[in-house]
Amino acid sequence: KASGNYTLSILAHQEVAHSGYDEAMLMDPQGYVCQGSGENVFLVKDGVLHTPDIAGGALDGITRQTIITIAKDLGYEVVERRITRDEFYIADEAFFTGTAAEVTPIREYDDRQ
Known about the structure:
Elements: H1 3-18, E1 25-27, E2 32-36, E3 40-45, E4 48-51, H2 62-73, E5 78-80, E6 83-84, H3 85-89, E7 93-98, E8 102-105
Parallel strand pairs: 4-5
Antiparallel strand pairs: 1-2, 2-6, 3-4, 3-7, 7-8
C-alpha cells in the first residue's frame, strides 16, 4: 500500500468512529464500493460470492485472494466486479477480510441489518 492509501483509510475510520460506527466502506470516484478502511469486502447473493475487482480500486490483499481460492476450490462461483452500495442492502450476507480482520461479518450497513 502507498502511504497515501493509509492516510485515507485512517481518516475514513476516524470519521465513522466519531459517528458511532465500527468501520468505513470506501467508494471509488464513480460511487462503487472498493473496500473497508483497511480490509477487503465480500457479499453473497443467491449462493454467489461477489467482491470488488482490483481494477476498480480494491486492495489486492492476501486474505482476499485466499478466500477467493478456497471458495472456488469448494465449488462456489466467485465474481470480481464493481459493486454498488445498494447491493449490500439486499445481500444474503456480507463480510470483511484482512490480516487483522480475518473474516468479520457485516451485520449492519447504513443502519440497515
